[in-house]
Amino acid sequence: MIKVHLGDITRLTVDVIVNAANAHLLGGGGVDRAIHRAAGPSLEEVCRGIGSCPVGEVRATSAFSIPVKRIYHTVGPVWRGGRLGEPELLSSCYRQCLALARRESMHSIAFPAISCGVYDYPPELAVEIAVEQVQQHLEREGEPKSIVFCCSDAHMAELYHSQLGAYVRR
């Protein structure tokens, strides 16, 4: 089941929330800042211990003060025109998070719009990749059973609804 939610990712009832992190994992802006604030100072301490995360990969931590089981920190690509591997790196963010959720037996996961904030990934292209990667994973693996695309504004939510509808019509 795939849902689109308009609101705060830190308030969702899921097993895992995905953080659109920066490479240093130390809390930047947008959803990254919101997750760090909601989780509390222990998250920053653990992230300092991890060190960094390359673009397209994922690192997992406890959720601390957020009532979910895990936070998956993934670093999306900065948009530089699309010819420097950005689509492949963004696809990898989704694939790696979904594969880790399956390995850890997580049943539900919520994604923000990875790379669509200060990293300037065109929202329409990012949403297309997100939906495609999630659909392909579900067709292959079937888990996690519940996937949420969490949006901070109505325009992004509409893009996800539209792309999900287009994917179903294929």
UniProtKB/TrEMBL annotation:
Entry-linked Gene3D superfamilies: Leucine Aminopeptidase, subunit E, domain 1
Domain of life: Bacteria
Name of a matching Pfam family: Macro
Residue stretches making up the Macro domain: 1-168
Designated name of the protein: Macro domain-containing protein
CDD domains listed in its UniProt record: Macro_OAADPr_deacetylase
